[in-house]
Each structure stands twice: as C-alpha cells, then as structure tokens.
Design brief:
about 90 residues, alpha+beta, S-adenosyl-L-methionine-dependent methyltransferases, 1 helix, 5-stranded antiparallel β-sheet
Length: about 90
C-alpha cells in the first residue's frame, strides 16, 4: 500500500510541467547601454535587467571588462586579472 502511494506521487510529479515555473524567458541578445564618463566610454551589458558585465574603454589605453563576482552583492572584478596566479618558473633550458 505504501509503495502504491509513492508510485502515484512520483507519477503525479512527473506529469507536472516544469517549464511553467520559470520567471522570465532568457533572450539571446543582451541589452547594451553606452555612455560617456569623462574621458572613457562605459558599456553596460544586461539580460532581463540583470547587469552582468561592464566594458570600460579609456581614451588612452586598452579596454577591459568588469564582470560580476560570485554573489549578488554588486561586486565586480576585472576579467583580465585571474583569481589564481600560476607560477611560471623556468625548470630547464638548453
């Protein structure tokens, strides 16, 4: 009797469509907002209103990206600076 209840519950849960639980569909193209701040250009990349990356292009110098760090506290880190530094020692040469 107990096994029948578990099988009925499992079949009921299998029939429930999981797609209905999604909040908003994710679009393929991000929304890009471009603005000038002094001598640099700032491009903000958003998907469904969620800011996930910022591209900074200074007037003089190389452009760089700021990407969202883990968590939702609004901290961004530079994408060209890795978190883990890999040693590059010369072991052997000839």
């Amino acid at each position: 009797m107990r096994a029948i209840k578990h099988l009925m519950l499992a079949s009921l849960l299998a029939c429930v469509p999981l797609a209905g639980f999604a909040e908003e569909p994710v679009g393929g193209d991000p929304d890009v907002t471009i603005r000038q701040e002094g001598d640099r250009t700032v491009e903000e990349y958003r998907v469904n209103g969620f800011l996930y990356a910022v591209k900074i292009t200074p007037k003089h110098g190389k452009p760089y990206f700021l990407v969202r760090a883990d968590g939702n506290d609004g901290n961004f880190v530079r994408a060209d600076q890795p978190d883990m530094l890999i040693p590059s020692w010369k072991i052997f040469s000839w």
